[in-house]
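Morning!

As promised:
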Amino acid sequence: MKVVLQGLTKKFPPRGGKGEGVVAVKDFTFEIPDGKLVALLGPSGCGKSTMLNMICGLEKPTEGRIFFGEDDVTEISPELRGVGMVFQNYALYPHMSVYNNIIFPLGNLKGEEKMTKEQMKERADKVAGLVQIQELLERKPKELSGGQQQRVAIARALVKTPRLLLMDEPLSNLDARLRLQTREEIRRIQRETGVTTVFVTHDQEEAMSISDMIVVMKDGELHQFGKPQEVYDDPANLFVAKFLGTPAINVFDAEVKGEKLIIGEDTVLDVPGVRDGKVTAGIRPEGFIYDPEGPLHCELDRVEVMGRDISIVSKNAACEAPVVRSIIDSDERPEDGLKTVSFRLRPNKVHVFEPETGERLRFGKGK
Amino acid sequence: MIEKNNLKAWLYLLPALIFMGIFMVYPLVDVFIYSFEEGYNFVSQTSYGTGFYNFSYVLHDTYFLQAVRNTFIMVIITVPISTGFALLISLALNSITKLRELFQTVYFLPYVTNTLAVGLVFMVLFKKTAYSDGLINLLINFFGGESVDFIDGPYWAKMFVMCFYIIWIVLPFKVLLLTSALASVNKTYYNAAKVDGTGSFRVFMKITLPMISPTIFYLVITGFIGAFKEYSDAVALFGTDLNAAGMNTIVGYVYDMLYGDSGGYPSFASAAAIVLFVIVLTITCINLLVSKKHVYYT
């Protein structure tokens, strides 16, 4: 089932009835395609969770409409929307066994939908198998590890076979190793069930690695929506470019003169079609090619070895950050004792932005 | 090394241990001893002999049996009603946002009000005198009923006022504890239940109640103990001669035995106190056993 959001806005009233109040989500319009895993990505406090709560029905939008497939669910309360929700802290009922937690939603069914104990058991066993917790059913939540609790929460959200699965920061309470494992798991479960899934995260790596689509948000506004690779390769603005990718994109104060990009004193790249004047240039770490004859000169600080690649950490007066990070193949390690390093740039890894607004200034292919 | 630390630990505990020993353990042991000494006299520090006579006397004393009956009736009526009522009030307080603080203050007022002053107010409300039937009787008359003397009248009327009074006086503390217990239940549980379409009764039974069960359990235990030790409230309503009013309690009986009739019977008082102790201990043990199944601790 696809989910369509139209002009969704959420304003929270000000505290104590005075002042402006907070606009958590601003005029949000986009469509979540059927059966996809979609990540809502943005920094803390950007309205991601509010967004999720509105889709879920726990929050009412101030303006705008939400459609599940063809149905307008804006005014419908959460239990009638057919959604499953995994909360950030999992919200497993601590006094109930895992089994009772999982069948809890089934106990709410009334009338014709009402289930017998056997039917409930069958459903519970099925989802328990899906998330691989069959041997934990008799335990209490506190006797489980974080990752296991997470699985139980997913099982509970899936037991009613929802039309839409929502997850609020599903991996934030797990340690680094478990996080990697669990995100694969979420991907697998989503593939197996085919349920349209929306999850919220502030971790761009997490979002990019498992989702079919990512939605980049900031201050309640939609900044970009697309496949992870597309968003990474073709950011709509400086914020998106900075937010995606580790190590982060290197940002320079630069200038364009006669369709050429100038960083400091160095004329580094042809940028056909870009107007003259000051710009902000972003260069991905992998956009640098180590070349003693290259046009961009930086002061060498140190070389970090990462195994397959090496990272050259250097300094450039025009760079926003104190250091410039570039990732190059370990075979091309600069000789010891160098004071300056020079680079050529890969044009498709260089993005030029308006310095004031951060809007992207696209340029055509160079020679 | 461990030995040394142990010694130090005992040294740190010493002040507390001394106080506990002098003011708690010693009196307890003493009461236990008195209860077996027949006709113990404080002044001469002598007794006729030892044995179970004190217990036998107390358990055959009609005043004591009356006191036990009264106390049990008060316990059985006031503990469940006050706890249940406090739960209802807390739930209501928890679900409103407007005027919540005002209501919380109002409900807490009886807790800081003096028992005897409240007794006086209850007199005005319930007592029937030559001049006035009291406010409650006026109400009863208004609805076509006959006046009842709640303070000097029939047993059930006196017991009603007594229980009403006890509930009123213990309610604030329970409301206070339950409101904070309710407020400390994580809201995500309710959100999770809401998304799953859980009805409010099921939410209460399956989520709220287990989550606040330790507080309820605490209130039930302390409620039982407090009600078994009921005395001052009875005095506030019916005066010091509780035997004459037929409203004596076990603690009242102990007090009468110690100081009543100018002489005092410390042996009988001690025996009665031991009987009360055994009753309270038994009830508390039963409570603990029941709670194992139904109370959930995080």
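Strands of chain B lie at 37-38, 49-50.

Hope this helps with the figure draft.
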